Amino acid sequence: MRRKTIQCFCGILALCCLLLSFAAPAAAESPSAIRVLLRRLALSDRMDLTLSGRYLVRSASGSELLLPEEARVTVLLRDRQLFLYSGGISAGMGASCSFLALHSGDADPGICFNLQPGFYPGSLSVSIEDNRLVPILSLPLETYLKGVVPYEMGDGFPPEALKAQAVCARTYALSRMRPSAAWDVVDTTNDQVFRGLNDASPKSMQAVEDTAGLVLTCDGKLITAWYSASNGGQTELPANIWEGNAPRCFALTEDPWDAANPESVVRTCVLARDASGLSPAFVKLIHRAALADPRLRDLIPEEDFRLSRLNALALTTPRYAAPSRLMTRLEVTFETDSFRNAGKAASSGEEEELDIADLLSSYPMTVTLDLFPETLIALGLSISGADNEIITLQEDDSAFTLTAGRFGHGVGLSQRGAQQMANAGGKNFQEILSFYFPGAALKRYAGEPSPLPTPPPELARDPGPAPTATPRPTLMPVTQDLPEGARMATVTGIAQDSSLNLRAQPSAGAEILMRLYYRQPLIVLEESDVPGWVHVRTDAAEGFVMESFLEYETDPDLPKG
Q1: 379: left (phi > 0), else alpha (psi -120 to 50), else beta?
Q2: Average of pLDDT values for 41-64?
Q3: Which of 271, 424, 508, 536 lies deepest, with the highest CB count within 10 Å?
């Protein structure tokens, strides 16, 4: 069935394809043009977009097609080949294609991706990797920054902090330029968040313009201007996080501004000295550590173990050299009567076992727990999952208080620290940058944006077809017989212009295999072990979806996963 569809499609291509075979000028490359891998779009086998301005589409073979302004385009991946649909045109693109922005008046050409906010100016290339679409946007650096600063900080931050962020983002982007690679940066926190341009962030965009071209250098060389949300009250050294030597403009130092900002992310846990209200997970860790002594291993089961008092807590074993405050272990000194009770209840009559139990009950025991990751998770102190929180300890007559801070790697600029410096300290962006990058100098980068090509006259006379509505995809077939216990269902719990993610595992954070569209039929094989998720299949794909978006043809009496 699929083979016949492809053969028919190829026949349509032969008749309808309006590809032109002249050499149109490509966008001129410039040091200030940056290539952004658009991973946030989570594309699988389909891309829907609307073009603002005129674009020239170039296939892998070099054939070209001019699309009109406001053209609606769909690119589909089928059998490791790309196919383009727009306004009645169907065109085979081969293994890759490019959308080259052309000069047309004062407005900058750009792209809007269906179901995604933001305007993406510039040119777009699309290739295939691991049977998925790989979109890479090329645009001027300064324009790119206007789609970064609003999402790395945002207009709620003071102007001087936004300027410092703009300088860091520009410097970081330039430091990641890799002419020999397919792309320079990714649009997620792996590099910098980029979501296209919007009109809701005028302060952030103004900060980019006010610092246009300014970058950070050390000893005359561009640095990698790292930054994170919060450093937990102490900056971190790059060498402690990544391999290699960093410029001398980084220092491990206390950051009172980050620590004083009430918006810095922190987690706090209070442990009562009388051991009341302790987390069962925390008690379990202490029990496991106490029974590391082989003589005690079978003395008392976990379900009967309890603490009667916490005598002392101590943070130990810094991960890095002084003055680092990133401790990795927690010493817990405690008392328990569980061992005594176990010894008296023992019927073995072994004198040694009873003596050990009495001894452990008479004197406090001390165990050492690894903070990362189990202890922090058990105490609710884990923040970002990076296992590098700065932990502080305070105590009084009734309790111990543990506080965790740091969201991110902590190297370079702290966004919350910069916010506090500008708001409470009245510092300008130069002073903020001097604090976080001591010894660095501001320098103006002389890059110029890439000029857009002008379409040749012969192409301009033939504007291409008028745009029409983006075609809906062909739904995947389901022709298999139902396995025993399986049920048929249809995707109905979404809007007709939306999609449902088919994931590799029953989790909202799992890899997206592809997008399922409205009225897609599915074979529901079984319920997942994770509540609310089901295991589904079509003739072409298999994975997991949320059951609430499905409508069953019969009652969903499914086998358990």
Answers
A1: alpha
A2: 93
A3: 536
Is-contact 521 538, C-beta < 8 A? yes
Cα distances (Å, whole numbers) of residue 553 to 82, 468, 477, 489: 35, 34, 17, 6
How far apart, in Å, are the Cα atoms of 442 and each of 219, 275, 488?
A: 11, 54, 63
Q: Hey, CA dihedral for 351, 357, 358, 360, is it positive or negative? A: positive
Q: Annotate 315-361 with three-state secondary structure.
A: EEEECCCCCCCCEEEEEEEEECCHHHHHHHHCCCCCHHHHHHHHHHH
Q: In the beta sheet, which residues pair with residue 414?
A: 228
What pTM does this model have?
A: 0.72
Residues 6+ apart with CB under 8 A from 322: none
272 SS3 class: strand
Q: Which of 292, 232, 241, 236 is nearest to 264 (CA)?
A: 232
| Alpha-carbon distances of 140 from 117, 121, 123, 448, 554, rounded to whole Å | 20, 9, 10, 8, 55
Of the candidates 39, 319, 36, the residue with the CA atom closest to the CA atom of residue 178: 36
**Segment 261-313, tens digit of pLDDT:** 999 999 999 999 999 999 999 999 998 898 887 666 666 666 677 888 999 99
Q: What would the pLDDT profile of 180-230 be if each residue is shown by its tens digit?
A: 899 999 999 889 999 999 888 999 999 999 999 999 999 889 999 999 999
Residue bearing the bigger pLDDT, 35 or 559 = 35
Distance, in Å, from the CA atom of 501 to the CA atom of 468, rounded to the nearest integer, reads 26
Q: How far lies 429's CA from each of 166, 171, 222, 407, in Å?
A: 10, 14, 18, 22
**DSSP-assigned letter for residue 509:** T
- Residue 13: what residue type? L
Report how far residue 90's alpha carbon sits from residue 15's, in angstroms, rounded to the nearest whole number: 9
Any idea which residue has 């075979």 for tokens?
21
Return the residue matching tokens 């050990």.
Answer: 356
* Amino acid letter for position 352: E
d(CA 37, CA 293): 53
CB 296 within 8 A of CB 287: no
Whether omega before 373 lies within 30 degrees of 0, making that bond cis, reads: yes
Phi, psi of 487 (to 5 degrees): -135, 155
> Vertex 137, ends 136 and 139: CA angle to 5°?
150
Rounded-to-integer distance, Cα 536 and Cα 518, Å: 15
pLDDT (0 to 100) of residue 89: 86
CA 315 from centroid of its chain's CA atoms: 31
102 is written with which tokens?
Answer: 């052309």
pLDDT at 523 (0 to 100): 93
DSSP per residue over 22-65, as a string?
S-PPPPPP-TTEEEEE-GGG--SSEEEEEEES-EEEEETTS-EE
In the chain, the amino acid numbered 164 is A
Task: Dump pLDDT digits (tens) for 455-491.
Answer: 444 433 333 333 333 334 456 677 778 888 889 999 9
Banded model confidence at residue 108, pLDDT cuts 50, 70, 90: confident
For the chain, the residue count is 561
